[in-house]
Design a protein that fits this description.
The complex is a heterodimer of chains A (406) and B (576). Chain A is of the alpha/beta class. Helix content of chain A is 32%, strand content 14%. The longest helix of chain A has 21 residues. Classes of the chains: A alpha/beta (406), B mainly alpha (576).
Chain lengths: 406, 576
């Protein structure tokens, strides 16, 4: 049953990708039926990945209603990948699973992780699933054009063997690092913590300015972008999404990072999906029975569209050979939303799907009823797959050990 | 081919609490523990209450005086709360760079600032790895983009360590760091200039200095240390330069000017009269108008309208021109009330006029200029409009794409005007029926108040939002909704002005007479200015501010002068 088998695990690097979809992922009518071979209409575009995925049904975000925080929708986003109570009204109380994994497998890479997003309209807590630690949100790049300059600037073009020069940046960086170190010694713990993230980021830049090793960029091709377009204009949403996925996959392929996330819109969904003929705000649809429930409903169209986007990402990963398999085999893509069905705004009975097996770590090809286990237990499994031996993730009160996925 | 195995497995069995009980608990008791899945909800269902205006469990002076469940901490001994180090907001960065390099400096867009508790000035802004990259790129672009280096320096930099460059480094550094450079800093920047000049040329040396300063944590953050023991136990006085920066960031969203830095140097920011004199001077500057509006724009939350989508089949008249007209109307209105009128909160909430261009004239049904570029102060129908609450910007931002939204608008009043937090909605919220001809929005939303499961929370929300049902999803006044006469009767509960009312103008009038709303305005300004939520140690500062604001009949300009002389502003306490 193991695609490729466990023995193949060693050579290629493993990677972790989060694909976040706003406001739920499926209608009741689209779900697989546990105990039957009926996968449901949601997975229709993903038929070819059946053997490489696990559908995890009935996971709960158990911390969601505990501790400080604003309305439940916002809490769901902050809690879904952190699995712990918030620090205060607006901030997560711990690192999200991708960031914990990045701190393990991202060390020494040009980017410990990369965050991509499509059209974030406003930036309160409902736009913040990714946290590097308590109170430390990781905002996402919203423009693939800016992302390109940031990520691929240091990657040498085939004709020029050396990285571009950054003289004045270099001296400013040295100066800022020296000032940061001096200032740090004069601050108390709280303020020092705030400064440390800047210092760490400066060191990352320092490493990149030092030039990338050829090992990193072998077999790597910079993505092509085309002409610049307005990243906030709704009609461009599908195009921006694809370009961001192109950037994401190319950064993995070039060895620039091993952890990435793609966030589609605000989780309080501000998109009307005009190109699908839906023309209703995603959030308003969620609060409306007839828009949500049935197959063929507006929400079902939206969810199916996101399934097609997930397929685009998986197709790209599968097109890159690695060892005797593809990059997808060495990756885990977690396709997730803060809600189970959109209409109820419930953070219980979630159905999340993981694709790939992290180099043979996970058994795949199953629909699994998690029976109300906590998302923390999935995160425990994920961190274990990436070499973190901890037996809990987030708040241990919501942990019951890793899920039996291996 | 591998078979797709479908496994149905239950690993744990758990008994979930009754959904009904869960939902009923959602608006009772303390905010911190609502909706727990194990049935351990705190609080009593007999005395439903919303949260106080604080996240501090020790209790603080709530704005909701007398509200059930709101803890009150009274001012006993003057204290101040710790002031965490803040990073410049993107707006502050942009203004500061233009003050340093000139109005034409090309400031890039950064990864969006977060808006915790409504405001971008909150001290939880940190520098993510993305933002650090953007800072360094921006600094390099700005430094390389200086068009006339000699003009910036004020002389022709040439020889190593000569007076021209030395003075520039001291002056530029002092302005950027909001305090004189230390001798070490001066020496390091001079060395950077010298080494760059010898490798390249003098102008490049200056650019290198500018880029380094803009990437320095002393520019990007606002570290404070205080100076000298304060009369308040456990606190220090904020130093003169720290006060100068606090004044300029609050009143201008930027760095101090030379006048303010000179006042700090001369020790002329130590008394309330001196602070008031500087603040008064600063409020006369155009920079104050822009900075001030940024507070109101965030308090009223209208920037949401910048990107809000509207269904063209329902609102064919809505387009980007109307959108920007609505935003501009509110900006002009707020500016007018604060700077050209009496600056009273009540005027903000009840003014019978607004600023109208051609598009808005059509929307409001009043005579208007013949183009969209001209805005004229115009009396609106007082039965339809009253102050900011009934302006199209707020009403359109807090609505659906194809309908009004009593819930969004009710929540707007409850959280933004009354400073009350609402707890999380429970899981498994039943959905609303689809929009249907012959069934009004109110009738569909009435489910919330009809169902006991929803009512405990929604009576706190819907009673405020239903009163605004005369306004459709783009803020047009309507007497019918889906063919039915609009019922805009509403009820205020859990406020100091409880009772029934009908329609927007009456609601605005009730709010304008609420002590709770008046106190809330102070709380919002306090959060914005301090960059954090209020805590129990703020009790005395807040009480004094609220008292003065009440005595001044809700004067929003005077409130700024009170803020900059308050203990919380003039003292410094280090965080742990």
């Amino acid at each position: 049953m193991l695609p490729g088998g466990r023995a193949r695990a060693a050579t290629a690097p493993t990677r972790f990708v989060v694909m976040h979809v706003p406001e739920g992922m499926w209608t009741q009518a689209q779900k697989p039926t546990p105990g039957s071979t009926n996968l449901g209409t949601l997975f229709a575009p993903l038929q070819s990945y059946q053997s490489k995925m696990n559908v995890l049904m009935n996971l709960d975000i158990k911390s969601r209603d505990k501790g400080p925080g604003g309305d439940g929708h916002h809490r769901g986003v902050v809690h879904m990948l952190t699995g712990t109570e918030q620090k205060d009204e607006s901030n997560a109380g711990g690192a999200s699973i991708d960031q914990k994994i990045a701190s393990k497998i991202g060390a020494g890479l040009p980017f410990a992780s990369l965050q991509f997003a499509v059209r974030i309209i406003y930036a309160d807590t409902n736009a913040r699933p990714i946290w590097s630690g308590p109170g430390k949100v990781m905002p996402a790049m919203q423009s693939p054009f800016d992302a390109y300059s940031r990520i691929f600037a240091a990657v040498p073009a085939p004709s020029t063997p050396t990285a571009p020069k950054f003289d004045l940046r270099r001296s400013a960086l040295d100066y800022a690092l020296a000032e940061t170190a001096a200032l740090r010694g004069r601050l108390g713990t709280t303020d020092r913590d705030m400064l440390d993230t800047y210092q760490e980021s400066l060191r990352d830049i320092e490493r990149r300015l030092g030039g990338l090793s050829t090992e990193m960029t072998v077999g790597c091709s910079k993505p092509t972008l085309g002409a610049s377009i307005d990243v906030k204009a709704e009609p461009n949403y599908p195009t921006i999404g694809r370009l961001q996925m192109d950037m994401l996959v190319a950064s993995l392929q070039c060895g620039l990072t091993r952890v990435a996330s793609l966030q589609w819109g605000n989780s309080n969904d501000q998109c009307t999906y005009s190109w699908l003929g839906v023309n209703t705000l995603g959030h308003d649809m969620s609060h409306n029975n007839n828009n949500c429930d049935a197959d063929g409903s507006k929400k079902a169209k939206v969810f199916n569209w996101y399934a097609q986007q997930t397929k685009y990402l998986l197709d790209k990963l599968s097109a890159i050979p690695e060892g005797d398999g593809t990059m997808l085999d060495n990756t885990v893509v977690l396709w997730a939303s803060e809600f189970s069905d959109s209409m109820s705004h419930s953070c219980n009975k979630l159905m999340w799907t993981m694709f790939g097996n992290a180099g043979g770590y996970f058994k795949t090809g199953r629909v699994i009823d998690c029976g109300g286990r906590s998302v923390n237990d999935l995160h425990t499994s994920l961190q274990n797959a990436f070499g973190i031996a901890d037996t809990t993730f987030g708040n241990p009160a919501y942990c019951g050990g890793a899920l039996p996925l291996t | 081919m591998k078979q797709f195995a479908v496994v149905s497995r239950t690993w744990t069995k758990r008994v979930s609490g009754s959904i009904c009980g869960l939902m009923l608990a959602a608006c009772t008791g303390s905010v911190a523990n609502v909706g727990s899945l194990d049935g351990n909800q705190a609080g009593s269902s007999e005395n439903p209450s919303v949260g106080s205006d604080s996240s501090d469990n020790k209790g603080v002076p709530g704005t909701g005086g007398g509200l059930g469940g709101t803890k009150q901490a009274l001012c006993t001994t003057p204290e101040v709360a710790a002031a965490p180090m803040r990073r410049l907001t993107h707006r502050e960065y942009g203004n500061a760079v233009r003050d340093l390099l000139g109005a034409t400096a090309n400031v890039p867009a950064f990864a969006t600032d977060t808006q915790s508790d409504l405001f971008d000035t909150m001290a939880d802004q940190h520098v993510s790895s993305l933002l650090a990259d953007e800072y360094l790129e921006a600094a390099a672009d700005l430094g390389e983009g200086i068009s006339d280096v000699n003009a910036l320096v004020g002389c022709a930099p040439a020889a190593s360590s000569e007076a021209c460059t030395r003075d520039f480094i001291a002056r530029f550094g002092r302005r950027a760091y909001r305090r004189p450079l230390t001798s070490d800093e001066q020496a390091r920047l001079s060395a950077l200039y010298d080494s760059t000049r010898s490798a390249s040329d003098a102008a490049t040396g200056v650019r290198a200095v500018v880029i380094a300063v803009l990437a320095s944590p002393h520019f990007l953050f606002r570290p404070e240390w205080g100076a000298g023991k304060s009369a308040i136990a456990g606190a220090l006085n904020a130093s003169p330069y720290e006060l100068a920066a606090r004044l300029s960031f609050l009143l201008w969203s930027s760095i101090p000017d030379e006048t303010l830095l000179e006042a700090a140097k001369a020790g002329k920011l130590s008394t309330k009269a001196e602070l008031t004199a500087q603040a008064t001077r600063m409020l006369d500057d155009d920079r104050a108008r822009n900075a001030n509006y940024h507070f109101y724009e965030q308090w009223f939350g209208i920037s949401l309208l910048q990107t809000a989508a509207k269904d063209a089949s329902v609102y064919p008249s809505f387009n980007d021109g109307l959108r920007s007209s609505m935003l501009e109307e509110t900006r002009r209105f707020v500016d007018h009330v604060v700077w050209d009128e009496d600056a009273k909160l009540a005027t903000m909430l009840t003014a019978s006029y607004s600023f109208v261009n051609k598009s808005l004239g059509l929307l409001y049904g009043v005579p208007a200029p013949s183009n969209d570029q001209t805005y004229v102060q115009t009396e609106l129908n007082p039965d339809e409009r009253s102050g900011v609450l009934t302006q199209a910007s707020v009403l359109a931002a807090y609505a659906g794409s194809n309908e009004s939204s009593p819930v969004k608008r009710g929540k707007w009043v409850r959280t933004r005007m009354l400073c009350q937090d609402l707890p999380a909605p429970p899981a498994n919220v039943p959905a609303l029926p689809e929009i249907e001809a012959g069934v009004s929005t109110r009738e569909r939303f009435a489910q919330h108040t009809a169902s006991p499961a929803c009512a405990s929370c929604h009576k706190l929300i819907d009673g405020l939002g239903f009163g605004l049902e005369h306004y459709d999803g783009i803020g047009s006044f309507r007497t019918k909704d889906q063919g039915k006469p609009v019922d805009a009767s509403g009820a205020l509960v859990n406020t100091d002005v409880d009772g029934t009312y009908v329609g927007g103008p009456e609601l605005a009038n009730v709010l304008a007479n609420s002590d709770q709303v008046r106190d809330c305005a102070v709380t919002q300004w306090f959060r914005y200015s301090q960059g954090r939520r209020e805590q129990s140690a703020d009790a005395c500062s807040l009480q004094a501010l609220k008292k003065s604001f009440a005595a001044n009949d809700g004067d929003l300009r005077q409130l700024l002068l009170d803020l900059v002389t308050s203990d919380s502003f003039t003292n410094y306490r280090a965080p742990g």
